[in-house]
Amino acid sequence: MRQAACWPARFAGEYNQGMKPGSSSSRRFLIGSLLLLLAFPALVLGQGAVPPPISPSKTNAGRLRWMQYSMVAGRVVVSSAYLGTNMTFGPGRIDGREERLQVQINAEQINLRYELTTPDEQFSIALVDGKQLSIRRTCSHPSYSLHFEQQPDAPLSFSIDSADVKCSLSGDSFWHLYLAEPEIVRRHLAPLLEVLHPAWQLAAMGAAIEEALLQQAQNPRQIAAQRWTRLVDDLASPQFSRRQRAQRELYDTGPVVVPFLQKLDRSHLDAEQAARVRALVESLSVDCEDTSDRVAIWLAGDVDVWLSSLSRPEPARRRGAKRQLDVLTGSAVDFNPDGDETERGVQIERLRTRLQKQPAEKAAATKPPVE
């Protein structure tokens, strides 16, 4: 499909090199080009056609900026200095588009609801308590449905259903979704999130994160997350001095440790561990917006990220992912990065089952027995 997208430049070069205007060759070239041009929308549809860009009116775009949106640990975090705002705008109709915006901002919560409706399309953004975020887009011609959901203490979900793409993803962060299906997330989801924050450049950052992870995989080494896990364990030590030292070392690590701490299953921590982890996250999260380097360091220790990379079309990425999984698991994983697609698919599913089962077994073994 990428070759099809580049056809005009290639054919133009052939024309300039050997075709004379008015010749039979040039007429054949023009007819062939016209046929390809007519077929081009269908070729693009094969990649998963994206409806035209959508954006609020200039007035409502400005009102949406009453909130500040940050991407922290791959999740949208919202704050605002406009406390005491409680307003509804619309519904109002301009050029066949109907818009409605509700904003409620106080010290305890931030709520907003934005809706844009045209004869063929509906688009909505809903934010509840500043944490629960939902984005929906549906079109009737052609049929297209997209849904993104961010719930506190739950994986993010993203689904798209159209004539050309049917995809359903779930992950701990936006970056997990991106790394699982870069092209789909880049073309369909990232532009809708950037309605909230146009300067995010999520696709560019995702590509930078992926490149940083590839560099890391070329030189596998002890993963920072393994050291952080030991320090979190030390937060439950019976020795006060050891607990203090572990908290100080985690704090000195800086904001890069925040995504790791946020991902911890608090139900497997004792009361003091949970309190210390919460204090660390709160103190380190100030101005802790994601950067490509920070996210790459965090994700380098995430098995799910490398499992996703095993299915990439580029052999170098598959080989790097295998090397990193060898390091993370402490042994050579059963995967042939140069095998055929069917063989790799079977091996990936087998690995996924095995690696996702191990944490559950470990957690069950460390839970206190039920009286």
Task: Characterise this structure.
The structure is a single chain. With 371 residues, this protein is an alpha+beta fold. The protein folds into 3 domains: 47 residues; 143 residues, no CATH class; 152 residues, no CATH class. The chain contains 15 helices and 10 strands. The strands form 2 sheets. Strands 3-4-5-6-7-8-9-10 form an 8-stranded antiparallel beta sheet, covered by helices on one side. Strands 1-2 form a two-stranded antiparallel sheet. Strand 6 and strand 7 form a beta hairpin. Helix 5 runs antiparallel to helix 6 and helix 13 packs antiparallel against helix 14. The N and C termini lie far apart (61 Å). The N terminus and C terminus are likely disordered.
Please sum up the structure shown.
The chain has helices at 2-5, 7-18, 24-48, 58-64, 174-180, 182-193, 202-218, 224-234, 240-253, 258-263, 271-284, 292-299, 303-309, 315-329, 341-366, and strands spanning 67-72, 75-80, 85-94, 97-105, 110-118, 121-128, 132-139, 144-150, 156-162, 166-171.
Task: Please describe the topology of this protein.
Blueprint: H1 2-5, H2 7-18, H3 24-48, H4 58-64, E1 67-72, E2 75-80, E3 85-94, E4 97-105, E5 110-118, E6 121-128, E7 132-139, E8 144-150, E9 156-162, E10 166-171, H5 174-180, H6 182-193, H7 202-218, H8 224-234, H9 240-253, H10 258-263, H11 271-284, H12 292-299, H13 303-309, H14 315-329, H15 341-366
Antiparallel strand pairs: 1-2, 3-4, 4-5, 5-6, 6-7, 7-8, 8-9, 9-10
Helix pairs in contact: 5-6, 6-7, 7-12, 7-14, 8-9, 13-14
